[in-house]
Amino acid sequence: MKTLVIAEKPSVARDIARVLGCSKKENGALEGNKYIVTWALGHLVTLKDPEDYDKKYKEWNMAVLPMMPEKLQIKVIPQTGKQYHAVTTQLARKDVNEIVIATDAGREGELVARWILDKAHNQKPCKRLWISSVTDKAIREGFANLKDAKEYDNLYRAAVSRAEADWLVGINATRALTCKYNAQLSCGRVQTPTLAMIAQREQEIREFVPKPYYTVTAAAGGVVYTWKDEKSGGTRISDPEKAKQIAEKAKRYPLVLQNVEKKKKQKEAPLLYDLTELQRDASARFGYSAKQTMNLMQSLYETHKVLTYPRTDSRYLTKDIVPTLKERLDAVSIGPYKALAQQAKRSPLNGKLSFVNDAKVSDHHAIIPTEQYVQLSTLSNEERRIYDLVVRRFLAVLLPPCVYEETVIQASIEKECFTARGKRMVEKGWQEAYEDNRYDEEDETKEEVREQNLPLLEAGMKIGQPKISLREGKTKPPARFTEGTLLSAMENPVRYMENRDSSLVKTIGEAGGLGTVATRADIIEKLFRSFLLEKKGNEIYLTSKARQLLKLVPADLKKPELTASWEMQLNDIAKGKKRRDVFMKEIRSYTVELIDEIKTEEGTFRHDNLTNKKCPNCGKRLLAVNGKNAKLLVCQDRECGYRETVSRTTNARCPVCHKRMEMIGKGEDATFVCACGHKERMTKFQERRKKEGGGVTKRDVAAYMKKQKKEAEEPVNNAFAAALKGIKL
């Protein structure tokens, strides 16, 4: 008899098959003496579309809302039906007596496998493979410690509840808004509060009134001393007259050192990466989008097998990982990391480690290197950057603390207090892991009194005639969101909550904010695809469509409290603390209330981006929209879905100012245009790149143009069906 293993992706299935000795190719599977390994392609089974329950739901009609099937049912996704049938063929084999679920170890991974088994009416016993990396060693150890699948039944119930709740609320609310205002409007419990946070930040920026402030400094003996208020400790003076008086007084008297205090301090390394922290760092340092970082991490995890499971919200390790640390250090002892890894090996790896805490790890530990030796030459430049971030953070926590001597000088000029501070490195410790010293941006505090190198100074010294400077500054508005800072706000949206009740604050903290580490990148991408967000440089802006949507959507859906409450209840279902049927009953009641509110709401939606160009399919006027990396014309009729690309931001750099250029037009008639005024036809661009040795061949250009044409032909909204099938609200 044989065991059937169901993996989530073909690449993972191939790795498992190799370790289990399954080399014989079957239809959608690999077979060995004891095991058969098959795979899904992400989800093979999904919730049925509204029209699958009743033909009347095919038309988007407000009269039939809310759509409330008595029991939500599942169906095979047509596009991947062939692989589903390949899996069920293996399931039905008489020589298969056991199933091993080997999909991703998390809520969605559980759903992928269980829906396949449910749809196939499987009655055979199931085990669960739960691993955080797909190295050969991890797979072998995982199969040696398989769990009974029943232990994860509650996790499956939570996953189904999440999917069904998002279907009931998301599809009904989206259809109601779209029907009422005849525009492509979508909303959900995560994407709408995310938009609301961006809107609140934009309002803060609009309403911000800069206020002038003044600082007084005294330069003496190669040191700059800054005036400080003795009571508040602040260095800014709001009254210009007071600032002027202090500066005038300081010019007439010597500076006297009152106290020179030296303290030896040490600083621990920043914690290991979870996915959100990694996405933040990659956004700040390389300008990568959250989705791009997620894809790179997935490749390093699945294809190269050099990093552990990416979709984690923990920054700690469990005790069982500690014995493997030396092996992981051996794996990264190459190139730029070799000396650091050797140094880390000399540290005690079995005592009390600050980054080891079982209580702070839920499903998966922090992202760290695997025991797999890495070939840096096989990684793309982008993969190399992400790998470098993770390895350096891993090495940093294993190195000694950074030790430095901090000197704080208190001085006075005729009863006015001045201060200076300096820092002298004693032992770099973990900071040696960071060549550019960009190690932990969230810990970097904006000091009013900047650090400087100080000469040998003692209390009582008097310095005559210091050089006094009076400077004026202005307070700055809050910064606009980038993808990195938006991820931070989604993770901790407390300041955007109307109700700051302590229990709600605690709830949203325990729930992990808006969305999950696995879904936030997709949510941000969806907001760009729906033309609710646009980018200018790295900064994120709301579109007119988004601002109008926020006025029309029910207030409840704009609050972070709603999704916090949902996630908390889903976690309770996963832990067996709450019944699934109770949660779903509450969701159905909430859906009815929500649709009633939309139906009775008074409001209008106006397209303020209409052009005079007509749609070639239906004749209606096209809308001018800004995609994430392109300018497009799209049809205003949601059922038509026509769109065309006007221009696209490329990676081609301007030969004058070196900024990225836009490409207008198609094929050989395309023109590259830069903001500085430089223009270049495609033929000229190709000639220049050939001379420069850019390596762009005609085949490269043809492939790029083919990709652009394919993207341009994709409908912006085929009646929302495709978008809503995999909706993650």
TrEMBL record:
<protein>
    <recommendedName>
        <fullName>DNA topoisomerase 3</fullName>
        <ecNumber>5.6.2.1</ecNumber>
    </recommendedName>
</protein>
<dbReference type="InterPro" id="IPR013497">
    <property type="entry name" value="Topo_IA_cen"/>
</dbReference>
<dbReference type="Pfam" id="PF01131">
    <property type="entry name" value="Topoisom_bac"/>
</dbReference>
<keyword id="KW-0479">Metal-binding</keyword>
<feature type="active site" description="O-(5'-phospho-DNA)-tyrosine intermediate">
    <location>
        <position position="309"/>
    </location>
</feature>
<dbReference type="InterPro" id="IPR000380">
    <property type="entry name" value="Topo_IA"/>
</dbReference>
<feature type="site" description="Interaction with DNA">
    <location>
        <position position="167"/>
    </location>
</feature>
<feature type="domain" description="Toprim">
    <location>
        <begin position="2"/>
        <end position="135"/>
    </location>
</feature>
<feature type="site" description="Interaction with DNA">
    <location>
        <position position="175"/>
    </location>
</feature>
<feature type="site" description="Interaction with DNA">
    <location>
        <position position="60"/>
    </location>
</feature>
<comment type="similarity">
    <text>Belongs to the type IA topoisomerase family.</text>
</comment>
<feature type="binding site">
    <location>
        <position position="104"/>
    </location>
    <ligand>
        <name>Mg(2+)</name>
    </ligand>
</feature>
<dbReference type="InterPro" id="IPR013824">
    <property type="entry name" value="Topo_IA_cen_sub1"/>
</dbReference>
<feature type="site" description="Interaction with DNA">
    <location>
        <position position="311"/>
    </location>
</feature>
<feature type="domain" description="Topo IA-type catalytic">
    <location>
        <begin position="152"/>
        <end position="595"/>
    </location>
</feature>
<dbReference type="InterPro" id="IPR003601">
    <property type="entry name" value="Topo_IA_2"/>
</dbReference>
<comment type="function">
    <text>Releases the supercoiling and torsional tension of DNA, which is introduced during the DNA replication and transcription, by transiently cleaving and rejoining one strand of the DNA duplex. Introduces a single-strand break via transesterification at a target site in duplex DNA. The scissile phosphodiester is attacked by the catalytic tyrosine of the enzyme, resulting in the formation of a DNA-(5'-phosphotyrosyl)-enzyme intermediate and the expulsion of a 3'-OH DNA strand. The free DNA strand then undergoes passage around the unbroken strand, thus removing DNA supercoils.</text>
</comment>
<dbReference type="InterPro" id="IPR023406">
    <property type="entry name" value="Topo_IA_AS"/>
</dbReference>
<dbReference type="Pfam" id="PF01751">
    <property type="entry name" value="Toprim"/>
</dbReference>
<keyword id="KW-0460">Magnesium</keyword>
<keyword id="KW-0799">Topoisomerase</keyword>
<dbReference type="InterPro" id="IPR034144">
    <property type="entry name" value="TOPRIM_TopoIII"/>
</dbReference>
<feature type="region of interest" description="Interaction with DNA">
    <location>
        <begin position="186"/>
        <end position="191"/>
    </location>
</feature>
<dbReference type="InterPro" id="IPR013826">
    <property type="entry name" value="Topo_IA_cen_sub3"/>
</dbReference>
<dbReference type="InterPro" id="IPR003602">
    <property type="entry name" value="Topo_IA_DNA-bd_dom"/>
</dbReference>
<feature type="binding site">
    <location>
        <position position="8"/>
    </location>
    <ligand>
        <name>Mg(2+)</name>
    </ligand>
</feature>
<keyword id="KW-0413">Isomerase</keyword>
<dbReference type="InterPro" id="IPR013825">
    <property type="entry name" value="Topo_IA_cen_sub2"/>
</dbReference>
<dbReference type="InterPro" id="IPR006171">
    <property type="entry name" value="TOPRIM_dom"/>
</dbReference>
<keyword id="KW-0238">DNA-binding</keyword>
<dbReference type="InterPro" id="IPR023405">
    <property type="entry name" value="Topo_IA_core_domain"/>
</dbReference>
<dbReference type="InterPro" id="IPR005738">
    <property type="entry name" value="TopoIII"/>
</dbReference>
